[in-house]
Specification:
- The chain is mainly β and 147 residues long.
- It has an eight-stranded antiparallel beta barrel.
- Strand 2 and strand 3 form a beta hairpin.
Amino acid sequence: MRLTALAEFELSYTWMEYMDFAPGGQYLAIVDGVFRGERLAGEVRFLNVPVKRPDNVNMPALKGVLTTSSGAKVFVEMAGVSLLRAADAARVCTASVLFRSANADFAWLNNAFGLMEGVLDASNTARGRIFLCENTVGLDDSPAHGR
């Protein structure tokens, strides 16, 4: 497996509601921000509907649209785990990232799998990085690799 940097991001929660189900709960949030990378950059808006588990672990579930400077639209989906960092009450998040686009310049993302790492601070601003995760076993290798 090979990881290649795709973009850095900064996201801010612009609206949030929490439903307490004791134990656990459900967040609903609008998240706005920006991706900055050579191959993928632009403004993004997400709907995040993370479950809060009874053990205080959040399960981010973001779906949104990135708009590039050329106006191309890329659907972005993230799903992961967000752990509380005791030292400063920040949330440390790791997530998978999937993409879809009808724009020919970004069609390569339709078959891409990404990984995200980031931190959501106490001001509800998240910063982090997204990596492309490439299979090094390869689709064209002999069937023996899949056994």
